[in-house]
Each structure stands twice: as structure tokens, then as C-alpha cells.
């Protein structure tokens, strides 16, 4: 008797780092960032539909390892991600990640993918989506403080979606700024390396803070933030890890992803529990006005939420369909008779 053919559900499409890189170049990075911005925005519009929970974090002295699950009722996703600012000194990255999509109906996975690159892309696309609603109209210049792994992605997303033309860069390590300038030299952005954070913010309408330090740092102090600015604060995303002086928070309008998570992890962990915030999804779906006028100071207190990873995963699933940018991996055991898992084990006996 011949064994039944393996179920097609046994083989899960796997997108390796190599294939993710090929996919991004095949589509074009600015197009990926623009499309991802729209996919994330679509999912923010249907926000109430999703399961939502603050991410499950395992903290250590060195860093954090987090699991980020969500579901829209049809598809389930999770991301594994770490944050270890000390890694860089050993030649390792601060943030690495991988993730999975599964169908809710059977619980079977439908995509497994690298997410270190994808996290940088989705974080940048989320910044662009927020800035589209919050940045002053006609913004031309962004200050980029912290020129590490995320920096180029943030710059290109804001360029692709908002059309900025000038980038002013600062990092405490000048070699990080040199690296970012080298990587963005063909981007069409006018690039200026600055000696201090204070000089980087001069003339900028958007300030992105994207530093990594496991402490309450003061990357921006109150005197550095004038009227009409949008602050895109990426790096404060863990308990005890913030970038803005609390005086800034007292005079800005703050927009967040999921308040129960942001109050633990974001800049607003420095503020009382009743500090007023607006949920970004309500701005996206038109319930609440984002920017009221050109003088308002807005803050996107970004920490990264599971729904953004869900959007990124479903985008990749769509984009690799019918291409060579994935490999089928036999991730799921597939006994001929579903109750005969032990019998299946015997297939591999010598
Ligand atoms: N909000 C989100 O969704 C999200 C997603 C991914 C990463 N992050 C966070 O973004 C931050 C940046 O991530 P990364 O992968 O680019 O890290 P990275 O370690 O590659 O780069 C961080 C850079 O910040 C610089 N820096 C540190 N302190 C500074 C200071 N006081 N002033 C100026 N520059 C300073 C470092 O020299 C380094 O070049 C991290 O804190 C990370 O946890 C947030």
C-alpha cells in the first residue's frame, strides 16, 4: 500500500534572511516601505477586531526577550524579538527577530520568516504612517538622532511617504553617522552630519530619536523642542529605557499604539497613570484629529506593537506567493493517520 501524499499544510513557506533581502531588492526598498505603510494603516483602521495584549517580556540585566502575539480572528501571528543594547560591543545586533503566521481555523502555520530586517522595515513604516497624520504639512527636514541599525530605514520611509528632502544626523559615535551617510548617499536626501543633538534639530520639522541605551537617557531636553515639531520617539521601548526629558511630555500631544503596553514601556512611563494619550488607530480611522495646527507639538511614543508585525507578516505572505523568495520547510509533523504520530516516527528508522 502506498502512503498518502504529505498534506500541503505540512510544508510551511520559510523566508530566510537571504530571501528577504532578495525580495526587498526585487520590489525596491522605498516601494516596500510605502506599501507596508498602507498595509499597517489598513490594519490600524480595523484595530478593534484584533486580540490585544501587552507583549510578554522576559527581562534580564543585559536586555529583554519578548513574544508579541495577536490575531484578527482569521490569522494569528507572533514575533520573537530581543533588545540587547550591550550586544553591539561584541559585534552582535541590539535587535533580532523572527515570526510566524498561522491560520486560526486549524492552528497550522502558513508562514515562518526572518524578522530582523522586517522589524526595521515595519518600525519605519509605522513611523511614516504616524507622521503622515501628525507631522506638520510640507515638512522637508528630519533630524535623526541615533544612527544605528534602524536609522536608514526610518529615513527612507519618511522620505518615501512624506517627501522629506533633508536629513540632519547625530550619533555619539561618529562612525555610526558615517555609516548612515554612506548607506544613504544615493538616496537623493541632502545629508548633514551634526556635532551635537542640539545642532541636528535646528530647522527640522520632524525629530526621530532612535538610540539604544538601557537607561533613562535624555536625548532631547525641553529647550530643544520648539513649536510645530513632530517627534518620532523610537528608542524608549522598555521599562527604565527612555529618551525624552519628562518636561517635554508635559507640553506635547502624545499619540500611542496600545496604551497598556506604552504606559509600561514608552516615554510616558515617566508620567502618572492618568497622563492623557490618544490612540493612533483613532486618528487613522478619522475619529480623532491628529495635528490640529502648524504650531502644535506632536509625539509618537513608539514602542512597537504586535499588530504592526501581523501587517508585515501578511504583506510578506502576499508578496512571496508564486515567487522563488521562499522555501517550503517540513515544520509540521504529518502522520498518514492523524492519530498515528508514533507510526510516523518509524519512517526514519534505519
Ligand atoms: N519602537 C519600535 O517599534 C522599535 C523597533 C525596533 C527597535 N527599537 C529601538 O530602537 C533603538 C535603536 O535600535 P537600533 O537597532 O538602531 O540600535 P543600534 O544599537 O543599532 O543603534 C543605536 C545607536 O544609538 C546611538 N546612541 C546611543 N546613545 C546615544 C545618545 N545618547 N545620543 C545619540 N546616539 C546615541 C549608538 O551609538 C548607536 O549607533 C533601540 O533602542 C531599539 O530597542 C524600537
In terms of topology, how is this protein built?
Layout (H helix, E strand, L loop, with lengths): L10 E5 L1 H11 L1 H17 L10 E4 L4 E8 L3 E9 L13 E7 L5 E6 L1 H19 L6 E5 L5 H12 L3 E5 L3 H10 L6 E4 L3 H4 L5 E4 L6 E5 L9 E4 L8 E3 L1 H4 L3 E4 L2 H7 L12 E2 H5 L13 E4 L4 H15 L6 E4 L10 H5 L5
Helix pairs in contact: 2-3, 2-4, 2-10, 3-4, 3-10
The structure holds nicotinamide-adenine-dinucleotide (NAD).
Distance between the termini: 20 Å
What fraction of residues sit in β-strands? 15-25%
**Percent helix:** 25-40%
Overall radius of gyration: 21 Å
Order of strands in the sheet with most strands: 9-8-7-10-12-16-14-15
Biggest sheet character: 8 strands, parallel
Number of helices in the DSSP assignment: 11
Bound molecules: nicotinamide-adenine-dinucleotide
- Given the C-alpha coordinates, what overall shape results? globular
Count of discrete domains = 2
Instruction: Tell me the series of helices and strands, N- to C-terminal.
Output: EHHEEEEEHEHEHEHEEEEHEHEHEHEH
Number of strands: 17
User: What ranges have pLDDT less than 50 throughout 5 or more consecutive residues?
Assistant: none
CATH superfamily descriptor of the largest domain: NAD(P)-binding Rossmann-like Domain
- CATH architecture grouping of the largest domain: 3-Layer(aba) Sandwich
Structural class assignment: alpha/beta
CATH class annotation of the largest domain: Alpha Beta
CATH structural fold name of the largest domain: Rossmann fold
The average pLDDT value, as a whole number, equals 96
Amino acid at each position: 500500500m502506498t502512503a498518502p501524499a504529505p498534506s500541503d499544510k505540512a510544508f510551511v513557506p520559510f523566508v530566510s534572511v537571504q530571501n528577504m533581502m532578495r525580495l526587498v531588492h526585487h520590489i525596491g526598498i522605498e516601494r516596500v516601505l510605502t506599501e507596508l505603510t498602507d498595509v499597517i494603516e489598513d490594519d490600524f483602521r480595523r484595530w478593534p477586531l484584533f486580540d490585544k495584549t501587552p507583549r510578554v517580556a522576559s527581562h534580564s540585566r543585559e536586555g529583554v526577550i519578548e513574544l508579541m502575539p495577536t490575531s484578527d480572528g482569521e490569522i494569528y501571528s507572533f514575533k520573537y524579538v530581543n533588545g540587547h543594547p550591550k550586544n553591539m560591543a561584541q559585534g552582535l545586533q541590539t535587535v533580532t527577530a523572527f515570526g510566524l503566521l498561522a491560520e486560526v481555523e486549524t492552528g497550522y502555520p502558513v508562514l515562518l520568516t526572518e524578522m530582523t530586517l522586517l522589524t526595521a522595515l515595519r518600525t519605519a513604516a509605522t513611523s511614516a504612517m504616524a507622521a503622515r497624520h501628525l507631522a506638520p504639512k510640507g515638512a522637508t527636514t528630519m533630524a535623526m538622532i541615533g544612527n544605528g541599525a534602524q536609522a536608514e530605514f526610518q529615513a527612507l520611509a519618511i522620505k518615501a511617504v512624506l517627501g522629506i528632502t533633508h536629513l540632519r544626523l547625530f550619533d555619539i559615535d561618529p562612525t555610526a553617522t558615517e555609516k548612515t551617510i554612506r548607506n544613504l548617499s544615493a538616496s537623493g536626501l541632502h545629508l548633514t552630519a551634526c556635532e551635537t543633538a542640539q545642532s541636528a534639530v535646528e530647522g527640522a520639522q520632524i525629530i526621530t530619536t532612535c538610540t539604544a541605551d538601557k537607561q533613562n537617557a535624555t536625548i532631547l531636553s525641553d529647550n530643544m523642542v520648539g513649536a510645530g515639531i513632530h517627534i518620532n520617539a523610537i528608542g524608549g521601548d522598555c521599562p527604565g529605557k527612555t529618551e525624552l526629558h519628562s518636561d517635554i511630555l508635559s507640553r506635547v500631544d502624545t499619540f500611542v499604539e496600545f496604551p497598556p503596553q506604552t504606559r509600561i514601556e514608552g516615554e510616558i512611563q515617566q508620567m502618572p497613570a492618568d497622563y492623557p494619550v490618544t490612540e493612533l488607530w483613532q486618528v487613522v480611522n478619522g475619529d480623532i484629529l491628529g495635528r490640529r495646527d502648524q504650531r502644535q507639538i506632536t509625539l509618537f511614543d513608539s514602542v512597537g506593537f504586535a499588530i504592526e508585525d501581523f501587517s508585515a507578516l501578511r504583506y510578506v505572505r502576499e508578496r512571496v506567493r508564486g515567487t522563488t523568495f521562499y522555501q517550503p520547510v517540513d515544520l509540521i509533523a504529518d502522520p498518514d493517520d492523524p492519530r498515528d504520530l508514533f507510526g510516523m516516527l518509524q519512517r526514519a528508522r534505519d
